[in-house]
Amino acid sequence: MDAPEPQFLELGAGGTRRRIAYRWSGGRGEEPQLLWLPGFLSDLASTKALAVAEWAYARGLPIMRFDYSGHGLSSGDFLQASIGDWLEEAIAVWGRMGDAPRIVIGSSMGGWIALLLARHLAKQGRNGPLAGLVLIAPAWDMTEALIWQQLPAAARREIEVEGVTYLPSAYGDPYPVTRRLIAEGRSHLLQDHHFDPSCPVRILQGMRDADVPFDHVLALVDLLQASDVELTLVKDGDHRLSRPEDLRRLTATIAALVERAS
Questions:
Q1: Residue 196 contacts residue 118 (beta carbons within 8 Å)
Q2: d(Cα 192, Cα 182) in Å, to the nearest integer?
Q3: d(CA 123, CA 172)
Q4: What pTM value is reported for the model?
């Protein structure tokens, strides 16, 4: 099955208006559907996103992928974007999917967005179609626990005074962290707010992850009130978990939830 051409949806008004690119392979039947939520500064064409999409296409499973505002094919200024914006976009593309059971797959920051989406749906009483969460190195509460609390004092001052600082990255150019990202992110923190996503949760975590320590993910397991939570620790796994064996583990995890949802 060929990848569908990108489509676009418009969100926001005035200065917050942005055009969000998504690829939806369709599906209005009863087969389970997949929603891919990318990580920070990632997009719908990342290694894992493409691997999961090809796996889904080969099995006739509908899959939704999209780019957050300020990422990939979507419009928007990354320096003005926030967790709340990206959550709003995830909610919007969820609404473009069919009524069949849906499995949400979130990578890194996408794992946090997946949890926030599940919490939003539960509060709205609209979580019936949610059939599972697959979280890959979930960077929950990332802006506070994994960025702000780890920053040296000089970088914090730069954010407070200049509105942005640039941090070195192991994956490419230095990346911006803005005052808006940190401040707005505080309204979406999960710490000390236990909740039940009302679906099975599967977590894949590398023990050599330098970006999301595995003890941070162990704390997430304690936070979740769901009875069906499984954590798989990959002893030699890094943050990306993009090796062939990691991708096989990921698709096997998704396959088990798809079979259960079917």
A1: no
A2: 18
A3: 38
A4: 0.96
pLDDT means over runs of 10, the chain (262 residues): 82 91 84 97 96 96 97 96 98 94 98 98 92 98 98 97 94 92 98 94 98 97 95 98 98 98 92
How far is Cα 35 from Cα 114, in angstroms, rounded to an integer? Answer: 9
Each residue of 196-217: b (16+ CB within 10 Å) or e?
Answer: ebebbbbbbbbeebebbebebb
Contact 110, 39 (CB under 8 A): yes
Q: Which among 193, 195, 189 is positioned nearest to 224, based on CA atoms?
A: 195
Task: Give the residues across from 11 on adjacent strands.
Answer: 18
Using H for helix, E for strand and C for coil, what is the string for the chain? Answer: CCCCCCEEEEECCHHHCEEEEEEECCCCCCCCEEEEECCCCCCCCCHHHHHHHHHHHHCCCCEEEECCCCCCCCCCCHHHCCHHHHHHHHHHHHCCCCCCCEEEEEECHHHHHHHHHHHHHHHHCCCCCEEEEEEECCCCCHHHHHHHHHCCHHHHHHHHHHCEEEEEECCEEEEEEEHHHHHHHHHHCCCCCCECCCCCEEEEEECCCCCCCHHHHHHHHHHECCCCEEEEEECCCCCCCCCHHHHHHHHHHHHHHHHHHC
